[in-house]
């Protein structure tokens, strides 16, 4: 019995340290994935600012969806490419710079979602989306862009968009 107790203490110590080591490895892996995802999103925004059509769309899945600020903008990837191409061809697409970003990764490590505050030509906007891991590469699968409107200005914005919104609603 005297030999068993020290052995149990040693086994408990090893087990606790092994669990701590596993947690540190997992934490490191998640931070590395978040850094990679940040790089993908930053490169995607930079490709738009540089009007680099191929680089921009290479960061998106083939079945990606882009939801823009206009009520009619719910683009499948193919349609979004067709809509965007003239802007890229003119050498001026759009310029978004992330001021803040939060990234979350699924337990399986193959899906991530994020939200970001953006500095844009429309002033502050919010972006949110989903990335999917294809092989070893993270790609944007779904993106939603919205204009940040201060709560104090909502009533005047509603008045400005009421007529257009009624047209869109009648078409839905």
UniProtKB/TrEMBL annotation:
Signal peptide: none annotated. Pfam families: SnoaL_3 (PF13474). It comes from the Bacteria. Residues 37-150 form the SnoaL-like domain. This is SnoaL-like domain-containing protein. It comes from Kordia algicida OT-1. The lineage of its organism: Bacteria, Pseudomonadati, Bacteroidota, Flavobacteriia, Flavobacteriales.
């Amino acid at each position: 019995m005297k030999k068993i107790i020290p052995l149990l203490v040693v086994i408990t110590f090893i087990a606790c340290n092994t669990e701590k080591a596993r947690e540190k490895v997992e934490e490191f892996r998640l931070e590395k994935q978040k850094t990679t995802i940040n790089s993908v999103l930053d490169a995607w925004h930079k490709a738009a600012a540089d009007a680099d059509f191929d680089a921009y769309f290479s960061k998106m899945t083939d079945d990606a969806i882009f939801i823009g600020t206009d009520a009619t903008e719910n683009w499948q990837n193919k349609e979004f490419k067709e809509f965007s191409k003239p802007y890229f061809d003119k050498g001026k697409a759009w310029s978004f710079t992330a001021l803040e970003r939060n990234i979350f990764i699924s337990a399986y490590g193959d899906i991530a979602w994020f939200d970001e505050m953006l500095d844009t030509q429309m002033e502050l906007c919010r972006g949110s989306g989903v990335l999917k891991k294809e092989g070893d590469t993270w790609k944007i699968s779904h993106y939603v862009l919205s204009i940040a409107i201060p709560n104090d200005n909502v009533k005047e914005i509603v008045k400005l968009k009421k007529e257009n919104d009624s047209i869109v609603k009648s078409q839905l």
